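Handout for the seminar on molecular recognition.
Each group receives one record of this type.
Step one: identify the two inputs.
Step two: read the structure output and locate the region that could contact calcium ion.
Step three: write two sentences on what you found, then compare them with the reference statements printed after the record.
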Amino acid sequence: RKMDPTVLIVEDEAAIVTMLRYNLEREGMQVVEAGDGDEALKILAETHVDLVLLDWMLPVMSGIEVCRQIRRKPESRDLPVIMVTARGEEGDRIRGLDTGADDYVTKPFAIGELLARIRALLRRSGPAQPQGQLIYSDIEMDLAAHRVSRNGKAIHLGPTEFRLLRYFLEHPGRVFSREQLLNAVWGPNIYVETRTVDVHIRRLRKALNDVKGTRDIIRTVRAAGYALDSETAA
Ligand code: CA
């Protein structure tokens, strides 16, 4: 069951669209494109979208006008919008946010920063918020409430350990290398030493194993990486 968020890119510069699409898809997001405002509004009327990356300088209708129209419609009133623009003046920034954009990025932007802003907005927004539970063996994760329990006992995890466990729960039994975990949990553009993964695995393991009567559910695979595996030898 996939819950990939869908991002609508409204941008008339093909090179930027290509770059954005590549990076968003690497983050596990679905991408739809519109080259101008009319097309964007048409897509929004027909397709479920979780977030809009909206260029300010568009042919015919400006990004500001597109944003106004998005906000005017009840079905897209709460849709997260990030305005992307080449302008950087404070006045423009305020104007962009006044129109109803949730965030604002100035070109040229660092893709890592943009992805972080997208993730933050998706986390905050209603429709894109993950729903439901992930369950494996005696571990339960409530995505909406951001709660984890093992054997019915609440477990407190830091944000990174939470994301790590979530990724494992989405792919139980599968062995992941440190690099794969880094890409999936920290993101492909974030520079972190692979050793960092071990630190967070150690914390996650400790939190999970603190529950009495349970056994180590994280398997260390020598020279390969880690897996969530209930068959792990005690
Ligand atoms: Ca443009």
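Reference statements: The CA atoms of residues 19 and 222 lie 36 Å apart. The pocket of calcium ion is lined by residues 11-13, 55, 57-58 (CB under 6 Å).
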